[in-house]
Amino acid sequence: MRAMVYCAGLGSRLAPMTDTAPKPALPVRGRPLIARTLEWLCAAGVTEVFANTHHLAAVMKRVLRESLPAGMSLTVSHEPVLLGTGGGLCAAKPHFGPVWPHDPLLVVNGDALIESEPTLAADLVRSHAERRPLATLWLSSDPRARALANVDVGDHGAILRIAGQGVVSEARTTRTTYLGLQLVDDRFIEWLAEHLPPSGVGCVKDHGWIPALLAGHAIDGLDLGGITWDIGTPERYAAVNAAAE
């Protein structure tokens, strides 16, 4: 399996810590956060990792290489201009080549500690291959999960609304939380590229998921449980480091 990890953000709210290290390179319970993410990906069956860089790119690249598990390859996509989650994914596309529904790309936020069962990634892949939506999101109904985005899911995992935007329907839905992990293939990446502004800077949610839902395309979600711990503020960073393993 292949995965892309977002490592390009500025981490401005964690300054001055992020004046010398990108957010994914900061220590979490004694190890760089990215080392824990790569370890999780390895346990999920990922053998090829692609990471984008921007802020303190040389530092981020060094920590990535030092943290790489045995048997895992790394390719770095550098962004001279920060492109956001949507632009960053599209810019990295030449590095990972064709992505098919039966062999999708796992896209992961690099600035959060993942505490979900990695072997369940196989269920996400299986669902994506069988149902063939543009994207399949890892969701959780665990009440501890901090909402990166609230997601309303209908029958058979079909997502109707993300952060309140999407399809208006009377159908009964279940409110879940997006954990910052999703599967995509070339169909979604092409859709996203077509809907980015001319600058190439954009967001997966605003320029990918939401327009796709409004246009009638399928975006799926699978409630596989678990949580991800965001470290984006000094308070949350301190809380994650204070928690027991």
Task: Give the topology, please.
Layout: E1 2-6, E2 27-28, E3 31-32, H1 33-43, E4 48-53, H2 57-67, E5 73-78, H3 84-96, E6 105-109, E7 112-115, H4 121-131, E8 135-140, E9 150-153, E10 159-162, E11 165-166, E12 174-184, H5 186-195, H6 204-214, E13 219-223, E14 227-230, H7 234-242
What are the salient characteristics of this protein?
single chain; 245 residues; alpha/beta; Spore Coat Polysaccharide Biosynthesis Protein SpsA, Chain A; 10-stranded mixed sheet; two-stranded antiparallel ribbon; 31% helix
Task: Describe the structure in brief.
The protein is an alpha/beta fold. It has 7 helices and 14 strands.
CATH topology annotation = Spore Coat Polysaccharide Biosynthesis Protein SpsA, Chain A
Question: What is the helical fraction, as a range of percent?
Answer: 25-40%
Spatial gap, N to C terminus:
27 Å
Helices and strands, in order, run as EEEHEHEHEEHEEEEEHHEEH
Instruction: Return the structural class.
Output: alpha/beta
| Count of discrete domains | 1
**Based on the structure, what is the oligomeric state of the protein chains?**
single chain
